[in-house]
Amino acid sequence: MQVLLVDNDRLLLEALSVAMQARHPDLQVDLAASEPEALALAGERAFDLILLDWWLGEASAAGCYASLREQCPQARIVVMSGDDRPRLVYEVLELGAAGFLCKNAAGFAEMREAIDIVARGGVYLPGRLGARDEVSPSVRQRWQGRSLAECFPALSPQQQAVLRVLLRGVSDKVIARELDVEVSTVKTHKKIVFRRLGVNSRAEAVALAARMGVMLD
Amino acid sequence: MTDPAAPALGGEASAPRRALDASIAHIREELRRAGVQMLGVDVLLALVIGIEISPASALLWFAGMQTLQHQRRRAALAPQGAAAADPEAFIRSMQHWWLLLGFGRAAVVALAFLYGQENLEVVVTMVLVGLAAGSVATSGGEVRLMRAWTFPALGTLALAWAAQLDWLGGTLALLVLALARLLIGYVENSGRQGRRLIDYAVELETERDRVRSANAALEEAGALLRIERDRAAAANAGKTRVLASVSHDLRQPLFAMSLNTAALGDTLERIDDPYLARIEAGLRRGLTQCRGLLDQLVDFARLDAGSVEVRWAALELGPYLQALAAPYEAAARAAGLDWQLQLAARPLHAWTDALLLERLLGNLLHNAVKFTPRGTVGLRLLPQAGTVRIEVFDTGPGIPAEHQERVFEEFYQLDNPSRDRSRGIGLGLSIVRRLARLLGIELHLSSTGTQGCCFELLLPASGGPAAACRPADGAADDPAEAMAREAFAAESAAARNGKVVLAIDDEADLLADLDTMLGGRGYRVLTAACADEACRRARQQPPDIVLADFRLRDRQTGAAAVQAVRALLGRCVPALIITGETDAQNLAEADASGLRVLHKPLDGRVLARAVEEALAGQPPGQA
Lengths: 217, 623
Fold this sequence. Notes:
Number of strands of chain B: 12
Strand content of chain A: 5-15%
Number of domains of chain B: 3
Distance between the termini of chain A: 10 Å
Number of strands of chain A: 7
Number of helices of chain B: 17
Order of helices and strands of chain A: EHEHEEEHEHEHHHHHH
Radius of gyration of chain B: 53 Å
Oligomer: heterodimer
């Protein structure tokens, strides 16, 4: 798996790559300390996962996010921040982030779990937003990564496909292109998927996926 | 007063001086005003004398009189500096002029009585009596001037009449003298009253000035206080900013260190090196402690900056405290302490913020475990009229009375002169106090000094079902808020307090799931395996909502079970269908039941929302 880490703090970049590779030696990790560096690397390699710090210096990484999204439609972009207030998490999830990593992880166990989930294609949200004890206790267990079909058996294969791309966080247009259907069809599918899942927004769908332990890749 | 020489009120002059100044001002004013009238009187007298006696003597007298009048006016009005510099000397010089003028009048009397007819004597007497009355005004309450004029003028008149040596002359002489005495007495009296008024005015002015200066002093003190307060606020804000930025800036490198330590730990799973493992464990312990301290700092900075939002909701405390206390129970037992958790027999609800209350109680429980070497720590929940009472107690060394107020101050620590970091940095209780204030919790500490501590918290009660009418604060349409509210599990429990859910499923697993997920949120869950059992349950206790698995045993469907329960109760109880079907045919069938369908595996929040919406009578589906 090709991973790109973007953070303006070199110390953190190094530490994060070391921590990820210690648990998942198969990861190929590239580091970028600025937006131009990140975009240059994104032009060279097809990343599967991008971890993007939300505060690159003074400004938010919204612009950088958009450029990376454009350049790497196949990548899951997970946003990182020291600020894990629900409002920010909600914002970046609505924007299309495929998860949220809090740089204040409460403990070693939580930190390791977050790395595992993100590295293995899961959806991670901090603390209570991603609390898995909200899921039916009969299916509750340590995160193992379950397929979309396992988590949401009530969805048709087509709906699951839509949800998969939706969770990765690309626009309706890209979803339509990837699934080779009309944009209006994507919209209809999305509506049905949301209703089946009992959610009202993309952010809630991502939160539900995190709680269910969905593995995207 | 228009006279520029009039003494200004409010000067530094003493009261007698002020009275004199006022008299002088009055005299000058009268002289200026009465000049024309005097002239008229003099012209008239001169005419009468000229006609009755001789024009020469009249002219002579008139000229002399006018000179005197003119000189007096000049002396009185011109040099305004003299009067101001030495009012006594001014009065004395005026006294001379009054005396001279008095003699001037006496001259008329002499002329009239020596050379004139009787009618002239009468005219002169009348004029002089009139002038005497007029001089009451001119003397301005200064009795010395009045006497100086009256003695020569009226004295001569009285003498002249007395010299007639008949009863009429004697009577008139006595009357003139009586008038003189009366007028002098009047002037004296009015002068005294004037002085008294001035005294009073001065007193008032003094008082006014005192009040004014006191006000000015107060204002100045207020301004100083404001400056001081602003400085203190700025210093406090500065402190908060520093705390916030320090803790923020420390977080990132600390996080990086944690990541590196974690990587070291993971690597050690592959290579076995006990020495390195000890290093890793040491690093991990140090970092864990660091993070605990930093968390407190961040909490403190946020609370201090007032940037902590309260998400008010009704919270059932029993299950909440049970869940919250579990890790502290474990910590207490690990430290060899006994643990007590005492809950009320009936459900108690508080109106509070679950997450902030958890931080508050966490700090207290953490302290209790940390500072109690042996004995018991615990938590009590008690009902109390109007409020809910939570007590956190221990059998530790206690807090001496003299420290009981100060322990809530930031960075205040008992008995930690070496500032042993493992004992914290003294922020825990100051965070507790700030959180209590934020949540409207009354906080009391009782400690006998040796018998341990007991922190009593009086929480605002939520009236249980009655509170359902109260809209949850911030129940806005903001989806981020809504998500956050749900995320923090402090949902508006109000609506569901004591609501009865009837769950129908033939699988024990799903029933257990429903019981756990809904029971934890304040619902009462009844379970049934089939439609018959569901009806029996419903008869014993009518449910507020029915949840049924779509496919039950013996080809029963959940929809049919719902129909049976509704028929039994005779009303359209809200109902939801739960299904694990994946087959499109069966799914369509479930959808066709007209009831809202939820899919397995269930998510607690999705389920809770669906139940809440169904109870509220909202149409199923999305926003």
